[in-house]
Sequence to fold (203 residues):
Amino acid sequence: MIRTTAERVTSEKVTYATEPTARPTQAPTAQPTTTTTAAVTVPPTTAAPVVTAPPVDDSSDWTWPVPGFKNITSPFGYRAEFDEFHKGIDISSDGIYGQPVVAARSGIVDIAAGGCTHDYPKTNGVKTCSCNGYFGNYVQISHDSSTYSRYGHMREIVVRSGQYVNKGDVIGYVGCTGWSTGTHLHFDVNVNGQWVDPLNFVK
Fold:
């Protein structure tokens, strides 16, 4: 009867070394030195690599987060009207409501915070919405060990935490959730724990 390699290896109780190409270890025998023992041929094994997510794009290329809409209504920096430092930029224009928001750079979604239904301007006495830290429906994406970006006030989000996204993938749609006085996308970038002007990366 012809046995497979696996059966021969099992019946002979061969122990393998850790290297894929190492030969089987055989117990010494009392056979004369002139006797030749046939070697067992073991095909090399290639273990499939464990991949938790595609590698993060480490290029310097970014893309604009709301394709076709580049009007900035509130830039990065101090805002006197709110007496606060604005950590990002607000992108807004006629017709922007419901437009796709895309990942400005490839990465892994750290936060996909949804559930806010207060999708309207918080003006003229309308109570401020504090959902998800005032950001409403928002997404945060880590691009490498030191850089992440955030996308706030969306009508809805279409990604989940832990998901890998490519640059340009749709992650949600522009809205007016959270503390927002008008329809827009808040977009910010953090590098090494510091807020930086997003216009250093996207144009």
